[in-house]
């Protein structure tokens, strides 16, 4: 089967398509034929060696997958051959592959009306947005400031916060303002033109998907009961109002989010669908920092 592999850390050109043996699902695992995988910024960080929790290359990138079950390992219940499933895979064998091995207990069956491209775009970004908001626990009518509101995590976070009844303010470039308002934001600040610390007044929650020096600046718009949540390295960590969150697999949440998407209550914005033949280009796009919503990879055509 085909898989994307890399022999060393480096720029997108280290990503190569190679042939490898078909994996066999072990106990508690299933084998999927790839429908789609999505690209997350962490894939680029791992490829470049900026984060190294997969160890050294060679490995195959990719956390998010949607596919069709073609084989089932021992002790798997609730999933059958032929089911379309989606979820989050954390392994060195990744999801940028023709066939993907995944733990069955991290996958959920597609709700009626779902498709692979949409489903693959959901797991990491939506679960992270949901879990970050849970950590902040915004109440109806509280104000939530979402930094990077137009990106993969941000576009879910804006919708989830608005659905909880919060007033949402996003930061985004002007070209994305209409998009972010359409997701439910009451206001959007162009961070390239305006200092958000003076533009937004007081807020109750900051969801910081940018990190770094956005941290301490964000603390300035919170009072003592405010909550600052980040998924990044941030100079605000250490302040008693701040917390760091890491997105984790949850089939319960994924079922709920997938159902909301299938019912049209939550929108998944796909910036671009590329094939695995274009995987290098997908990483260049992701690293541009200008992706609106999600990038999705579908199987090789060449
Ligand atoms: N710890 C975790 O579990 C976890 C999970 C998921 C993601 N993350 C991290 O969270 C970050 C966001 O992830 P993502 O998937 O949402 O990324 P993404 O989709 O690549 O984000 C791209 C968006 O970021 C916006 N942006 C870039 N710089 C900005 C700035 N200074 N202020 C406001 N907006 C800015 C861009 O909008 P404009 O063009 O409008 O600027 C673009 O739409 C990444 O660094 C990722 O690694 C962490």
Per DSSP E runs of 2 or more residues, the count of β-strands stands at 15
Mean pLDDT: 97
Shape: globular
At the fold tier of CATH, the topology name of the largest domain is Quinone Oxidoreductase, Chain A, domain 1
CATH class of the largest domain: Alpha Beta
What's the name of the CATH homologous superfamily of the largest domain? Answer: Medium-chain alcohol dehydrogenases, catalytic domain
**How many H/I helices?**
9
Beta-strand fraction estimate: 25-35%
Number of domains: 2
What share of the residues lie within helices?
25-40%
The H/E string reads EEEHEEEEHHEHEHEHEHEEHEHE
CATH architecture of the largest domain, by name, is: Alpha-Beta Complex
Q: Would you tell me the structural class of the helices and strands?
A: alpha/beta
N-to-C span: 13 Å
Low-confidence stretches: none
Rg of Cα set: 19 Å
The set of bound ligands, ions and cofactors reads:
NADP nicotinamide-adenine-dinucleotide phosphate
Largest sheet: 7 strands, mixed
Describe the model.
- By secondary structure, the protein is an alpha/beta fold.
- The protein has two domains: 2-122 and 268-298, Quinone Oxidoreductase, Chain A, domain 1, CATH 3.90.180; 125-244, Rossmann fold.
- Helix content is 25%, strand content 27%.
- The protein has nine helices and 15 strands.
- It has helices at residues 41-48, 116-120, 123-136, 152-163, 177-182, 196-199, 214-219, 251-262, 279-287, and strands spanning 2-5, 16-19, 29-39, 64-72, 84-88, 99-103, 107-109, 143-147, 167-171, 187-189, 203-208, 222-230, 242-244, 270-275, 294-298.
- α5 links the parallel β9 and β10.
- α3 crosses α4.
- The chain is globular and about 55 Å long.
- Bound molecules: NADP nicotinamide-adenine-dinucleotide phosphate.
- NADP nicotinamide-adenine-dinucleotide phosphate is lined by residues 40-42, 124-125, 128, 147-148, 150-154, 171-173, 176, 191, 209-210, 231-232, 246-247, 286, 289-292.
- GO terms for molecular function: oxidoreductase activity.
- InterPro entries: ADH-like_N, ER, GroES-like_sf, NAD(P)-bd_dom_sf, YIM1/Zinc_Alcohol_DH_Fams.
- It holds the Pfam family ADH_zinc_N_2.
